[in-house]
């Protein structure tokens, strides 16, 4: 069983319907978490994902809309009364991410694991990690001046790709090659663009078509995306299935 849960389909702009970034891919009973933007800990609760049983979190880059709930997340793992976490936790992030965590923990020492082992792994270039029935591979992408990666998840003969935040680049296409599901950032309608930082609908369609992705879920949607015909714009140049991500939406593969 593969279940994809969109926890946050929004950005750093406060917007009631769309939380900052976060995703969960449940493989049988194993939840793999991707990004931890502000409000994701609460969204996990709403989606029925227990922070006590999660063990794997993949961070795409260090912008606050993808990382700021790391603080309450680690605080809860350490200081929930009558609960002592002893199972290890695995945190994956782009090049330099362990150093960022160290700095966060200097400011918030309550994040330092009390009774469990925290294993941090840099997913610098193309790095693979795997579990019982899954494999996740990182792929560096361009995102302004911030080190960022996209992720490719392979499990049970299916491929799910997650763009993270990215401008248009060949490595994003490579990451999404022949994906059954591509969760892709779509920050802007076609009338706007921010080259090398985010994607607009025209670029999303081009990435998806060149990659041969079968199905798209659009995410990282700024509020104005809900006022504009972004699906139609993508359908002009992409013939596969496409839908807008919504918070707490679940997709089975
Ligand atoms: Zn973002
Ligand atoms: Zn970003």
Overview of the structural elements:
There is one protein chain. The protein has 253 residues and is α/β, with parallel strands linked by helices. The protein has one domain (2-252): 4-Layer Sandwich (Metallo-beta-lactamase, Chain A), CATH 3.60.15.10. Helix content is 22%, strand content 28%. It contains seven helices and 14 strands. A seven-stranded mixed beta sheet has the order 6-5-4-3-2-1-14, covered by helices on one side. The chain has a seven-stranded mixed beta sheet with strand order 7-8-9-10-11-12-13. It is globular and about 55 Å long. The model has no long low-confidence stretch (mean pLDDT 97).
Bound molecules: zinc ion
Number of strands: 14
Taking strands numbered 1, 2, ... along the chain, how are they ordered across the largest sheet? 6-5-4-3-2-1-14
Number of helical runs?
Answer: 7
- Architecture per CATH nomenclature, i.e. the level-2 architecture: 4-Layer Sandwich
* Helix and strand run: EEEHEHHEHEEEEEHEHEHEE
Structural class: alpha/beta
CATH 4th-level superfamily: Ribonuclease Z/Hydroxyacylglutathione hydrolase-like
- What CATH first level would be assigned? Alpha Beta
For the terminal residues, how far apart are their CA atoms? 7 Å
Please compute the radius of gyration using only Cα atoms. Answer: 17 Å
Low-pLDDT ranges: none
User: Biggest β-sheet: count, sense, barrel?
Assistant: 7 strands, mixed
Helix content: 10-25%
* Mean pLDDT level: 97
- Outline type: globular
**Beta-strand percent range:** 25-35%
Overall number of domains: 1
Which fold does the CATH topology refer to?
Metallo-beta-lactamase, Chain A
């Amino acid at each position: 069983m593969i279940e994809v849960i969109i926890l946050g389909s929004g950005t750093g702009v406060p917007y009631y319907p769309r939380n900052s970034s976060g995703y969960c891919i449940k493989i049988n009973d194993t939840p793999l978490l991707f990004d931890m933007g502000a409000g994701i800990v609460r969204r996990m609760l709403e989606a029925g994902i227990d922070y006590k049983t999660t063990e794997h979190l993949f961070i795409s880059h260090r912008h606050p809309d993808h990382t700021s709930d790391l603080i309450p997340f680690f605080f809860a793992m350490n200081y929930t009364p009558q609960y002592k976490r002893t199972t290890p936790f695995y945190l994956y992030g782009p090049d330099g991410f362990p150093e960022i965590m160290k700095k966060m923990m200097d400011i918030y020492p309550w994040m330092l694991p009390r009774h469990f082992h925290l294993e941090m792994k840099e997913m610098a270039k193309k790095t693979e990690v795997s579990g019982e029935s899954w494999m996740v591979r990182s792929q560096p992408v361009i995102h302004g001046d911030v080190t960022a990666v996209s992720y490719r998840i392979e499990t049970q003969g299916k491929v799910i790709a997650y763009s993270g935040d990215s401008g248009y680049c060949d490595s994003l296409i490579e990451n999404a090659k022949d994906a059954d599901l591509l969760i892709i950032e779509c920050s802007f309608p076609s009338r706007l663009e921010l080259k090398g930082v985010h994607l607009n609908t025209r670029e999303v369609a081009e990435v998806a078509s060149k990659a041969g992705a079968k199905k798209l879920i659009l995410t990282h949607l700024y509020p104005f995306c809900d006022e504009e015909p972004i699906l139609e714009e993508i359908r002009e140049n992409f013939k596969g299935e496409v839908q807008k991500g919504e918070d707490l939406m679940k997709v089975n593969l």
